[in-house]
Amino acid sequence: MTGWSLGLRTVSDGSLQQLAQNGVLYSHSNSFVSRKGSKISLSTYREKEKFLPSIFRFLVRKQVGMLILAAFALLAFLTAFWMVNKEDASRSSELDFKEWFENSTYHLSALLPGKVVVCGEHNAQLPPPHALSMIQTKDSTAFPDPCRNFAFPPPPPGDRRRIGPRPCPVCYVPVDQAIARMPRVPSVSPGLQHLTYFHEQIPMKTEPHRGSAFGGYPSLAERNASFEIKESMTVHCGFVQGCRPGDRTGFDIDAADLKEMEQFHDVIVASAIFGNYDVIQQPKNWGKTTREKVPFYMFVDEETEASLKNSSLLDSRNRVGLWRIILVRNVPYSDARRNGKVPKLLLHRLFPNVRYSIWIDGKLQLIVDPYQILERFLWRQNATFAISRHYRRFDVFEEAEANKAAGKYDNVSIDHQIDFYKKEGLTAYSEAKLPITSDVPEGCVIIKEHIPITNLFTCLWFNEVDRFTSRDQLSFSTVRDKLMAKVSWNVNMFLDCERRNFVIQAYHRDLLEQRAHMTVVRSRAHPPPALVRDSSSSKPPVRRPPKRGKGERKSNSRRHRKVGSGSKGSSTTF
After folding, report:
1. pLDDT digit string (tens) for 357-406?
2. How is the chain split among helix, strand and coil, in percent rounded to 5?
3. Strand 441-449, strand 323-329: pairing
4. Residue 262, domain CATH
């Protein structure tokens, strides 16, 4: 007898007892009616006893089935969640619990496709107290200004043997004086104070433009709204699949490197080589403070890392000379040059606790101390963003035609981008744009202070590169002019010859290999003349003294031997 049947019988017995108390079963005056009523009542309750258990059993079976289904669903959910975070636990083993918890919370949104959230602002505007005390160990006014009377010299005379742009003189203050001139507080960000970023685990493409899942496919309306400067803004800025750039967002970086990149630094220098396209150049002429305080980061993909390992350049600390190598997996683009735009324009996202950064392309060699560069092109000019202008071209339309002529990108895409900008009001460069000196940058060097307005500028610049062509020179002036029309902010576009003063430009790897190949081919085509000797004679060739002309004296061999012996009384004639 089960517990369920006991419960039913208890209900049935209780009903009979209630009938007995009401006199239905034991009334002597109406015994027939009583018996008949009792038979009807008994038959009715027996039918209930049969009907109710069947209903209850059906409900019980349905509840158990639902419970079983719910249990299986919960088990499947937990299994999927465990599989998703299995790799995270191993990658986050080097992180503390707080960091691991914060990273793991991102993936709850992965189970909700189409959900758009906002990544919180993560900008360290002020350095920590211990770093602040190291910024200005001396009063900058105590130093004499060596560049006060510096005058830009006239260009040197033409040299037929040296064709093309050349460096020009630049006045730098000494390194210790440059460090003393570093601002103690961040510069004012005009208009924009708080900048946050969109995060969508599965971004959806809603318009027929290029774009990428890494960039989040911002719509044209979202693009236009991003140029409306407000005190607080949220924009697309790459890494849309997570709130921690490099952590399962595309452009993935190991946990140990991410932890290092999140440390506070006053100044960093960064570069990248993807597709094994360039040869790493080692910096020169840096001081002791730079070696101790300024880290150098080089982003590489797996192909480039394999080449470094095969050539035995990469040591056990993941360094090649002064550069710390940051391996990037799961690159978002098939084009190596487009992948290089990610660290070039989004350094503030990869390094959220950095005040100043200097970006140089992988083919460049830095030959001036970073503190001196920052002092010359940012702090002395009261600027927050500096980039050199192109050495020859100032107009975007001319730059587009030069890109098409050189085959830098397919002509249809370049024409589409330029036509789009023309419809927005892009015009050819003229003196009417002064004090803007150029619309075309030489974008291989970017000097930047990480504040909201400059971070917004590089975010929107990257969005243009993601939407249109990867030729960032074509989109630079459009983004700059749109921001300058809204707020009082400017870009320091210095001369290209000044840039060539602190970097040396090497050739790309393919050109270097092509030159080496041509040298080998030429040496084989024109071998040097060989020394012909007479094989019939075994004696070594006789060395004959040169013939003497008239008036030349015969050297005294005995005297030379006496001088060479170093005996007493000898003298040397000069």
Report:
1. 999 999 999 999 999 999 999 999 999 999 999 999 999 999 999 999 99
2. 45, 10, 45
3. unpaired
4. 3.90.550
Contacts of 102 (CB under 8 A, 6+ apart): 244
Of 315, 299, 303, 251, nearest in space to 276 by CA:
303
Closest CA to 179 of 137, 220, 239: 137
Tokens representing residue 215 in the block: 């960039």
Q: How far apart are CA 539 and CA 339, in angstroms?
A: 67
Domain that holds residue 342: 251-512
Q: Which two tokens stand for residue 23?
A: 């006199």
Identify the three-state secondary structure at position 556.
coil
Note whether residue 457 is domain-resident: yes
Q: Is 560 a member of any domain? A: no
Q: Does residue 518 lie within any of the structural domains?
A: no
pLDDT > 60? residue 477: yes
Its sign, for the CA torsion 182, 188, 190, 196, is positive
Q: Closest Cα to residue 455, out of 426, 489, 493? A: 489
The model's pTM: 0.71
Question: Is pLDDT larger for residue 37 or for residue 333?
Answer: 333
pLDDT tens, 266-317? 999 999 999 998 899 999 998 889 999 999 999 999 999 999 999 989 999 9
The count of domains in the chain is 1
Residue by residue, DSSP assigns 53-79 as HHHHHHHHHHHHHHHHHHHHHHHHHHH
Name the nearest CA neighbour of 448 among 374, 372, 394. Answer: 374
In order, the DSSP letters of 203-232 are ----SSS---TTTT---HHHHHHTTS--SE
d(CA 197, CA 205): 18
Model confidence pLDDT, tens digit, residues 419-469? 999 999 999 999 999 999 999 999 999 999 999 999 999 999 999 999 999
Does a structural domain hold residue 343? yes
